[in-house]
Design brief:
By secondary structure, the protein is α/β, with parallel strands linked by helices. It is built from seven helices and 13 strands. It is globular and about 60 Å long.
Length: 284
């Protein structure tokens, strides 16, 4: 479990101001950095990260051998002041959480501004419960950053984009970023969330994962997604339709009559467009 290409993505997001209001990070699993110190050093200097010193990541001098290098120092350089992680092994100092069962301890609900899953939740057999726990750990207004394998993984499950799109639709998440993660000769790259681009790659030469940064907008509890159209026994079903798969920042609006009236839909669309416009004005 660890960060590779997500290190560079995080630095780019920091440059864009994404971490301005993120002060607490909770890694699901004891996450570590998976890259040589020389590569990390180049990235940190290229992004002119204040406070960076190579000795903060001395453990990477032996990479890919031991010892492991925690992500804690990385997050601190991005302005995070409160770092924690979850695990199930009693030998670590952490939040001990069993992802196979519901997180009933409400003292841990809304624990962090950013909750991450870099190859952790696929190791819980009850994977839906694992993502409900992730939702509960995240503060309203916070973010969930997930990077998972699409095939040839080492857990119980692999994922494609429809899993996360359905989860976003059923929980009214905003999608801040989405893309494929391609590994070629041990180097990782992010590419746009385009199936056409993905299919142009030779599957014999690459490994493929998928990454999403989801924006949790409210304090509502987690809703499970169901594929397909219609509604049955009070359960909503969601069809994922990619109008423009290369546009990564977006959100879903329910459109069936029993979910949202015409007037309410217009209000919702107007609110979202206005909010987006004002946000772009602030960036400018």
């Amino acid at each position: 479990m660890g960060m590779n290409s997500d290190i560079a993505l995080g630095l780019e997001l920091h440059h864009r101001g994404f971490f301005n209001n993120i002060k607490s990070v909770l890694d699901m699993g004891a996450q570590e950095i998976h890259m040589p110190l020389s590569q990390l050093d180049w990235l940190m200097k290229a992004h002119k990260i204040k406070g960076y010193k190579p000795e903060m990541f001395d453990d990477l001098r032996a990479y890919p051998g031991g010892p492991r290098c925690s992500t804690k120092a990385y997050w601190s350089l991005l302005g995070v002041t409160d770092y924690a992680f979850t695990d199930i092994k009693s030998s670590h100092k952490f939040h001990k959480i069993d992802l196979n069962i519901p997180l009933e301890n409400k003292d841990l609900w809304h624990a962090a501004d950013l909750v991450t899953d870099f190859g952790n939740n696929e190791h819980a057999f009850n994977v839906g419960e694992a993502y409900r726990t992730m939702h509960r750990l995240c503060k309203p207004g916070g973010y969930m950053w997930i990077t998972q394998g699409m095939f040839a993984g080492n857990g119980y499950y692999t994922f494609d984009e429809n899993f996360f799109e359905g989860m976003a639709a059923s929980n009214n998440y905003g999608i801040y970023f989405a893309g494929f993660v391609v590994t070629l000769d041990k180097e990782q790259y992010h590419i746009p969330l385009s199936r056409k681009l993905l299919l142009s790659l030779n599957p014999a030469n690459v490994e493929v994962g998928v990454t999403y940064i989801l924006h949790k907008k409210t304090d509502a509890d987690f809703n499970y997604a169901y594929q397909g159209g219609g509604k049955s026994q009070g359960r909503l079903y969601y069809d994922v339709v990619f109008q423009s798969p290369n546009i990564t920042e977006r959100s879903y609006v329910p459109i069936s009559v029993d979910q949202l009236s015409g007037k309410a839909m217009i209000r919702e669309l107007t609110t979202r467009i206005t909010t987006k416009f004002l946000g772009l004005c602030k960036v400018q």
